[in-house]
């Protein structure tokens, strides 16, 4: 029987694939590969530039619910955090405590609906101090996902160590990579994604 797989990808500009001249980002790459392996799916990219965890928490249900009709295999992929740790007047846009609370609440809401969730860590940019703040958030997010039995892709540090990712970020706008960078991120997510889809 055909499985009506529908996956909503909710998050920020990295989910949207900003900077990729192929206009695929990591979301498009994973969706295309999945389809090519014989698993059709409907992938909804709901990434919005500059949004924080607070904004994403506030909109995810309203945007995803109409995309999950009754009888579909409804799933949710989440990624945010870089905008939370951006400083405005010397303070992060969202405190680490609030970011953690937002993720906890989002996962609780998803659990109430029986939704399988996969989370991807916030990636690094070309700013060491910013990355240090994001790395702290990465640790918090990993612990929250572990407690909720939600798979979490630890992509932040591997990408900081990736010459390809960092080179592309520097060559771009200082935050977003080009096609090769998104190839790197997709490769990190791929095994987790494939295992998650079999659940």
Word description of this protein:
- The structure is a single chain.
- Strand 4 and strand 5 form a beta hairpin.
- The protein has helices spanning about 15, 25-35, 55-65, 95-110, 130-145, 155-160, 165-170, 180-195, and strands spanning about 5-10, 40-45, 75-80, 85-90, 90, 115-120, 150-155.
- It has a five-stranded parallel beta sheet, sandwiched between helices. Strands 4-5 form a two-stranded antiparallel ribbon.
- By secondary structure, it is of the alpha/beta class.
Task: Throw out a few tags for this protein.
single chain, 199 residues, alpha/beta, 5-stranded parallel beta sheet, two-stranded antiparallel ribbon, 8 helices, 7 strands, globular
Strand order of the largest sheet: 2-1-3-6-7
How many DSSP E strands?
A: 7
User: Helicity level, as a percent range?
Assistant: 40-55%
* N-to-C series of helices and strands: EHHEHEEEHEHEHHH
Number of helices: 8
- Terminal residue distance: 17 Å
Strand content: 15-25%
Decide which structural class fits the backbone.
alpha/beta
Query: Mind describing the biggest β-sheet?
Result: 5 strands, parallel
The radius of gyration is: 16 Å
The residue-averaged pLDDT reads 97
What's the shape? Answer: globular
Low-confidence stretches: none
In short:
49% of the residues lie in helices and 16% in strands. The chain is an alpha/beta fold and 199 residues long.
Topology:
Layout: E1 5-11, H1 13-16, H2 25-36, E2 41-47, H3 53-64, E3 73-79, E4 87-88, E5 91-92, H4 96-112, E6 117-120, H5 128-147, E7 152-153, H6 156-160, H7 163-171, H8 179-197
Parallel strand pairs: 1-2, 1-3, 3-6, 6-7
Antiparallel strand pairs: 4-5
């Amino acid at each position: 029987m055909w499985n009506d797989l529908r996956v909503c990808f909710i998050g920020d500009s990295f989910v949207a694939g900003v900077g990729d001249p192929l206009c695929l980002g990591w979301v498009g790459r994973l969706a295309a590969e999945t389809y090519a392996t014989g698993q059709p799916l409907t992938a909804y990219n709901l990434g919005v530039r500059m949004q924080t965890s607070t904004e994403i928490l506030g909109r995810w249900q309203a945007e995803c619910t109409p995309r999950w009709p009754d009888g579909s295999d409804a799933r949710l992929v989440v990624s945010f955090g870089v905008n939370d740790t951006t400083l405005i007047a010397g303070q992060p846009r969202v405190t680490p405590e609030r970011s953690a609370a937002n993720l906890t609440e989002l996962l609780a809401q998803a659990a109430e609906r029986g939704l399988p969730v996969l989370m991807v860590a916030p990636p690094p940019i070309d700013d060491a101090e910013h990355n240090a703040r994001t790395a702290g958030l990465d640790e918090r997010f990993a612990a929250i996902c572990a407690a909720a039995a939600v798979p979490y892709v630890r992509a932040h540090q591997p990408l900081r160590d990736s010459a390809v990712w960092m080179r592309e970020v520097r060559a771009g706008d200082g935050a977003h990579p080009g096609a090769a960078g998104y190839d790197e991120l997709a490769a990190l997510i791929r095994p987790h994604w494939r295992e998650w889809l079999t659940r």
